[in-house]
Hints:
Layout: H1 8-42, H2 48-61, H3 63-87, H4 94-132, H5 135-141, H6 146-185, H7 189-199, H8 202-228, H9 234-263
Helix pairs in contact: 1-6, 1-8, 2-6, 3-4, 3-6, 4-6, 4-7, 4-8, 4-9, 6-8, 8-9
Amino acid sequence: MFELNKTLTYQSLVLFWKQIKDFLITLGEIGVNFSRVARYILGLRINVSETIEQSKRFAFDSLPISLTIVGMTSVIIAMQLAPELARQGGASYTGMLSALVMVRELAVVMSGFAIISMVGSSFASEVASMAVTEQLSAMKVLRVDPIEYLIVPRFCAGVLFMPVVFIISAFFGLACAGFVSNWTADLSLLNYVTSMWHGLYVRDIFIAILKSSFFGGTIALISCSCGYSTRGGAKEVGLATTKAVVWSFLAIAMWDFVFASIFYL
């Protein structure tokens, strides 16, 4: 007798529906948590000491990996870009192109990826561990809202201090690209800096800072929300951390598309 539920097509559809259902549930949880976070922030109910503690993680713990990723990427791009422009007679445009790529996209996106790997995954695993060990329930019994105590400080730290990481990473990346351009294409640092300022606009800097602020808040909110809704044991903590990282990567890509459509289309 033919059994539909054993066919590959049926199992694929069930798996696809399960993913869609999980996506909608998680999206709803993130929306609810954001509304509660916004209410606490507008009511100035912010744990300042905890926010400072989480800000250290955003601003300092993630900085070495951010500088490494942005620096190496800028070096690789400059090694390919500067010699080719020099052969085409456009070496003077190296600084301008490097500044546009670095400020508009590379520094902010790569810093976001580094923060997801270092800080976002840590947020998700911490909150998920507290959820499965009933620490969140104990906080509620003591009339302490976990959203106010755990998520609000992390969200504020992301919004305020990811721009700091972006600015430092961008300057570092531009410096690396300048030295590599001098090495590979014999472009003087003075010409590089002059070209860079001709192609870099204050508008681009402010847009990138705003975008990095959105990235930081989104990473913190998604990571904490995925951890907050975790139920089960150690396996579920790992799954929540993985989901937080994947969702944060997707969210950054979506925000990047939105900003590019609004400001550069």
